[in-house]
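Q: Trace token order:
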Amino acid sequence: MRGIVFHGERELELATFPDPTPGPGELVIEVMASGMCGSDLHRYRGPKATARSEIGGHEPAGVVAAVGSGADPAWIGQAVMVHHYFGCGRCDQCRMGWTQLCREGTAAMGNTAHGSHADLVKVPESTVLPMPPGLSYLGAAAIGCGTGTAWGALERLSLTGSDTIAIFGQGPVGLAATQLASAMGARVIALDISPSRLARSHDFGAWATVNPAEVDSVDLAVRELTMGRGVSKSLETSGASSAANDALHVLDLWGSACWVGVGSTIQFDLTEHLYKQITAMTSWTMSIASMARCADFVVERDIDVDAVFTERWKLTDYAAAYELFDQQTSGKGVFIN
């Protein structure tokens, strides 16, 4: 089979590997779609000295092609999606479906385990979920990380239709959050320094937009939209420190802020926020159960999550695909078979 390997410093190749054989409790999946995630760029851009030999990609959807001993043979031929963290399966976190928080350590698809930018991928049966009828392979791939990460954060925030939420960053995760939050009935204020991304956020349901590069104060701009109060919820997805700090400042009394963007630094005066009774939290992707809830919600509300993908590629287009993705001027790409 073929698989994309990152060698670091923007070098990668489509390498040949033996077809995987499922061990006890494992499934082999024929990959039909594998989304490109912003975190893949860390391996793409990273130093050669720390490059790994594992196949990249961690947003798969496909069809079960083979099962190992102890796995249910009824999986054969089923369309599935995959939770891309593999834990011990025994600790309290694994039993709750939070395998990325495994007490014994976790393996991450596309990083410390072979990923889905390939023809085939081998995964533990416990990480596999059937695709609900009506969900496409592209939709399932999106939910596998980017859209699922947005959903997990909105669940952490306990978002409802009575909320106004400021979503910082309108890249793939932020745009997915805008789409899902709007479908939940919330009013979304989308923030990004890219005019094209802000324009796209309107198509995904944003109620209002703010370009931080075009206003003197993000806090004041948001409060002008909310009768001076601020928002009940905020979500930071970009990883920019300025946005991470603004996510706190735009909150109304009793507001809640959540951060999913990696790489930012937050500095604040506790006294400023102490008297506002705020709640601050982080969110790391989603649990297996949350992933299933997201998929069901998308199908029930007929949400076009496929639209988050702006480019569709074949594995043989790997070089052009990552050259474009590296520029971060477009949306989200996906490899399809």
Remarks:
- The chain is about 30% helix and 25% strand.
- The domain at 2-145+286-336 is CATH 3.90.180.10 (Quinone Oxidoreductase; Chain A, domain 1).
